[in-house]
Specification:
Pfam families: AraC_N, HTH_18. It comes from Streptomyces spinosisporus. This is AraC family transcriptional regulator. This protein folds into 3 domains: 176 residues, Jelly Rolls; 49 residues, Orthogonal Bundle (Arc Repressor Mutant, subunit A); 56 residues, Arc Repressor Mutant, subunit A, CATH 1.10.10.60. It is 47% helix and 18% strand. Strands 1-8-3-6-9 form a 5-stranded antiparallel β-sheet, covered by helices on one side. A 4-stranded antiparallel β-sheet has the order 2-7-4-5. Helix 3 runs antiparallel to helix 4. The longest helix has 20 residues. The chain is globular.
Amino acid sequence: MDLEEFRTLLARHARPDWTTAIDGVLISRVDRPDPPAPSMSGTVLAVIAQGAKRLALGERVYEYGAGQYLVASVDLPVTGQFTQADPEQPALGFGLTLEPSAVAELLLQAGLGDSPRSGAGAPSGIAVSDAPPALLDAVVRLLRLLDEPRDRAVLAPLVKREILWRLITGEQGATVRHLGLADSGLSHVSRAVRWIREHFAEPFRVEDVARLSGMSASAFYRNFQAVTAMSPIQFQKQIRLQEARLLLATYPGDVTGVGRRVGYDNPSQFSREYRRQFGEAPSRDAVRLRASARTPVGVLP
C-alpha cells in the first residue's frame, strides 16, 4: 500500500500532545532525532508512516521504520530514540491503545480454539513486523474519520475492532492474543509487573511475587524474562530509576531524598546506578532536565 495518504493524514492531524478526536488513537510528529530517553511503553500498536525509531527493552533492541508496526502487550520500561527525523521529513506515526477486554471479546467471538493454550510460554512483551496492506488500509480508514465527525462515533469503533482483528490474525498474533487471555503466561507476568510498579520502593522476594501472580517460582522467572527481557529485580531497578528521574525534574536539589523515596537507602549506590543508567550523576542530570523540555519517546513512533 502507498504510504502517501497515511503520511498526509498524520501530518494534518498531528497535535503537540499527540491526542486525537478518536479515543485511544494517538498521532506523533517529531522534527528531530533525540538522545535515548526512558519511558513506559503502554500496551499499544504503533505504526510508522515516515522516519524511524529505536527502542531498547533490557538487552533487546527493536528498530522499526516506515511501513512497519510494533506491538507492546505489557506496560514495560523502555528507552526510545527517534533515529530518522528532521523538519523537512519529520517522523510520523500512528498509535492505538490495546485493551485486553477488547482482545478477549474478539477471541470469544472467533472461538478459543484459535488462541494460544493457557499453559503455553509467554511471548516477548514487544514485537516488530512489516505492516500488511490490510492493516495499513484499516489504519488509514480510521484516520479518515478524523475529517468526518458525523460518521466517527459509529464507524471508529468498528474500524478499531478490525485493526485489532488484523493484529490477532497477523504475524504477531500470539503476542496480542495472550493479552486477552486471563490465564496466559503473559497475563500472569502482567499481574506481577503491575504489583512491582505499585510497590517499586519496597524490597520483595521473587517467590512471593510469583505466588501473587499465580505461578511457581521457576515458571514465573522464566516467563518474566521472556516477556520483559529482565529479571524481576532488574525490572524493579528500572522502575525505581525512571521514577527518580521524574522526581529530580521537580526536586533537583534533593538527590538524597529522591533516592530514599524510590527505595535506595544508600546514596552512593543510588548515584552509581543512576549514572550507569542515564550517563550522568543525578544532580547534573536534574539540572539538564529542568533546562530542556523533552519530546515523549515511548513506544509510539
